[in-house]
Design goal:
disordered C terminus, single chain, FAD-binding_MO, 2 domains, about 25% strand, alpha/beta, 9-stranded mixed sheet, 5-stranded parallel sheet, FAD/NAD(P)-binding domain, 26 strands
Amino acid sequence: MSTAPQPPAPEHLDVLIVGAGISGIGAARYLKTELPSKRFAILEAREASGGTWDLFRYPGIRSDSDLHTFGYEFKPWRDEQSIADAPRILSYLRETATENGLDPHIRYHHKVHAVSWSTGEGRWTVDVERTDTGERITLTAGWVFCAGGYYRYDEGFTPSFPGRDRFTGPIVHPQDWPEDLDYAGKRVVVIGSGATAVTLVPAMAGTAAHVTMLQRTPTYILPVPRKDLIGNALKKYLGPERGYALTRRKNIAQQRFVWSWCQRHPKAARRLIRWINVRQLPEGFAVDEHFNPPYDPWDQRLCAVPDGDLFRAIRDGDASVVTDRIAGFTEKGVLLESGRELEADVVVTATGLNVQAFGGVQVTVDGREVRLADTLAYKGMMLSGVPNLAYAIGYTNSSWTLKIGLLCEHFCRLLAHMDRHAYDICRPEPADPDMPTRPFLDFGAGYIRRAVDSLPRQGDRMPWLTSMDYRDDVKLLRGSGVSDPELHFSRAAAPAEVTA
């Protein structure tokens, strides 16, 4: 009597990293360096690494943080540009992956749809789609590390505009920028006032006939040097490693000072930013109409413009700003509530992102689907009641990667602690289930407000606070141990739970 062959067991990994962007590459490098015996893979849904810096192709795309802090602590940023364009950042990320032997660990066209945890087995079962073939495969993993960022990669956010179909020209979202878009000598209206809009306007102004930034609400905008002269001098005279380390420390302190000062003295900060704007703009420009937000500085992220390029485009007459609301589209352009019509050949909707936590992956624990809004964030890197799952979310008030590095360090120490004690499972649980909570991110940006009800929450004390302060996180994630009364460890085969 013949027996049917048993299907092979799914491949098992110690750590499965989701996403090959700046966070995923960083996490993989820390794993390989700190825990070289761990088996890991990076699953990337797209066909290339780099995340944001490979996905977005709109004109002028660049960082809005300096690369001495946005770059990795372990890899000096050697380029003379401190506020760098996307191709330079992408080259830096891919160079990091190659130098650290990470390329063989990246599996492209692998989209994670769902992860299911079994406490009895002490592992995750991962449902993966091969996006190039449509094949569905299954993996298992001891840990899942979500490094896919916080927004949907397949579509950006565009409000519903009345009469949109009437417009005869192209309407483009920066997240889906067509390579063949021709705007040379044409009138362009860019809808929006955030980081993407203030990047696009000066980048397009030199080619287009005229670019108008149409905003509903002004944003705080500050000119910053594209090149860090002090940082470049330090690297020149002290060498790239020491110079980079000192520049990084300088810029961390500078970022923290600016943010803290704006929080303590919002009226003075408002006056200073206005004074800088007046000096950058043409005489008689309506600064209070177009550059005076109704909120305080850093209630939303400040927009940086390298070498004041946006202001220069306005001074040169290549760009302008209109503050109004959209009534609808016409055949020739955009009709405003004031009755004015902005004629355009091309409209760009730089209206933001669609937030999507953990890449939209469905999370199930012992047969129960996890609703993120019912969980609390532990140390800004794990979720209450969800074992062996970590995630990477950076700062909103400083360079994203500053926090990612600290989280990755702490994650590796946590895994090493579990190895020493032969633990298989790690699960955070608040001692007080009735602890007061508040939104995961205390941030006023529209893309956060639209999604806040679908995100985890944070508590009113450590370790359940989502810190946005690098100095506090250095103490919490680097200076303190991983053991915590509210972090519970156990072995998969043993029913009894241990707290360490």
